[in-house]
Amino acid sequence: MDQSTLIHDNALDYRDALPEGGALLGLDLGTKTIGVATCDAGWRFATAGKTLQRGKFGRDRDILSALITERSIVGVVIGLPRNMDGSEGSRAQSCRAYGRNLAEAFGLPVLLWDERWSTQSAERDMITQDTSRSKRAEKIDSHAAAIILQGAIDALAGGAF
Description:
Elements: E1 7-8, H1 11-17, E2 23-29, E3 33-39, E4 46-53, H2 57-71, E5 73-80, H3 90-106, E6 110-114, H4 118-128, H5 133-156
Parallel strand pairs: 1-6, 2-5, 5-6
Antiparallel strand pairs: 2-3, 3-4
Helix pairs in contact: 1-5, 4-5
């Protein structure tokens, strides 16, 4: 499959590229870690998973491959770190490249989803739940991935595209 048809910037095109239902994988790409989340096959609930130490792409690919196989993942949502004015900087370009590499490696549709405010939202939610500072540090990236994925699946279910 042509990799360029697998990369999407809006949920409507992404939804058209997905099979009917199936679990999705959400990723919050940091420079040192990758927050991971998954959702149910009906695209209703995103759940925070692990936070992985980010390494070379080949290592990341192998770890993600095991998760994709284990959970029968049919698509990937990657947080796209846009600037507050909507423009894209070097981090966004790095995420786009990572998405292209994932699409090529797995042949799965990839949605690049605006992640502005996801980490702040995750932090606020964890503080509300009275999560200690050290626990927040451990889990912030996977919770941000869940917020990114939840936003995308809400759009897939008929929200904003």
